[in-house]
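Dear colleague,

Thank you for sharing your sequence with our group. We've completed the structure prediction you requested, and as agreed, I am returning the results in plain text so they can be pasted directly into your records. Please verify that the sequence below matches your submission; if there's any discrepancy, let me know and we will rerun it promptly.
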Amino acid sequence: MPSNDHTIEQIENAIATCKMTNTYKMAWLQAIIDHTVENTEDRTIDFDSLAARIFTSYEWGRDVNHGSNPATVPGIVQIVRSVGNPTDKDIKKISSILKKDVAWRFLNDINLYDLDLQARTITLHDPQLLRDNAERLTTALVKRRACVLNKWNPGLSLGEAQ
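Please find the predicted structure tokens below.
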């Protein structure tokens, strides 16, 4: 597993090079960054808080394939598209997907937190680094997301894709 001490450049590199079969990792990290900006005292974040952010703050366009397999719609996308306003049950479903498919996989790309799957929490190693570089990291996330969405959706132009 990678070291706990990271530079902003290493985080950007992880964003640019991580393996992706859907856009979950980008939504996951964006939710973490947004949480650190809005909750400056928190080092520990629960999955339900991140799930709620992912539900309400991330664009899950109806006509866009968010995964590498066009025959399947990723679970979070299915939940978001099927309800207008999320209930606690919807947030718990997304939280379960984060536990099962996202939180531990992201650690394979870069170790930014300690993970407690049983408690469904992460404890950030350096929330200040994320907070201080939120705009820069958000730009990198948007660029990577646009790149993979354009790849998975031929004919779609989401800008910033290279």
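Summary note from our side: Residues 111 and 138 are 18 Å apart (CA to CA).

Kind regards,
the structure core
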